[in-house]
Specification:
- Helices cover 35% and strands 17% of the residues.
- With 218 residues, the protein is an alpha/beta fold.
- The strands form three sheets. The protein has a four-stranded parallel sheet with strand order 5-4-3-6, sandwiched between helices. It has a two-stranded antiparallel ribbon with strand order 1-2. Strands 7-8 form a two-stranded parallel ribbon.
- Helix 2 (78-90) links the parallel strand 3 and strand 4.
């Protein structure tokens, strides 16, 4: 293992540069070579570390976010975990609005990470004052010195993957990638990676995966 052979001073330096693993058993009856990008190797255990650090450091550079300020976000869990982790290290307060569809384990973990968690009903429309979107917006407006990450509508979500995940995949495959298969989610990962890969080779095919009944497909 050649990655991170020396001492790392800050856990945030371990975000990105995740391994690409060749799949052997599950693809044994299929033609071609198949690989999995192991985003669980990020310190926050998910791809969301990439957008969290990118958006936060962008706000720091612009002077929007200063030590002691508050980070507010809408999350189903993973982005919240990334933000809570970064907040601990950088000295920010973290307030999260989370859907009650999220597991109690996730909610407990976010609280254990020091986040203030507001559990909101999932059964209401997005523009309902009780929805986790509107709760996060309200908390942001009511909290001086706060920023709202707004991952679902923040172009930096896409940019984070355009600058990191896409180039990593291109380099790790020596530019030979032919297809990218990615979960749709907020759309940030697949959009940012696809944009980069298409610029390198317009023939790369992009396949998005989402849950049955996806509003994206409709």
């Amino acid at each position: 293992m050649t990655r991170n052979k020396k001492i790392t001073q800050n856990i945030l330096d371990l975000i990105g540069q995740t391994p690409l693993l060749q799949l052997q058993t599950i693809t044994k009856d299929l033609k071609g070579s198949f690989y999995a990008k192991l985003e669980a190797f990020n310190p926050g255990h998910s791809v969301k570390d990439r957008i969290a650090i990118h958006i936060i450091e962008n706000a720091e550079k612009k002077g929007i976010l200063k030590p002691g300020d508050t980070i507010v976000e809408t999350t189903s869990g993973n982005t919240g975990f990334s933000l809570a982790m970064i907040s601990i290290i950088k000295g920010y307060k973290c307030i999260l609005a989370i859907s009650n569809k999220s597991s109690q384990d996730k909610i407990d973990m976010l609280k254990a990470m020091g986040a203030e968690v507001h559990v909101c009903p999932a059964s209401v429309p997005a523009n309902d004052p009780r929805s986790y979107y509107e709760v996060a917006k309200r908390i942001h407006k009511e909290t001086p010195g706060s920023i709202y990450i707004n991952q679902y509508f923040n172009k930096l979500n896409i940019d984070a993957h355009y600058q990191t995940t896409g180039p990593e995949i291109w380099e790790q495959t020596d530019g030979k990638i032919t297809h990218l298969v990615a979960a749709s989610g907020t759309g940030g990962t697949i959009s940012g990676v696809a944009k980069y890969l298409k610029e390198q080779n317009p023939d790369v095919k992009i396949l998005g995966v989402d849950a049955f009944g996806s509003v994206l497909k409709k």
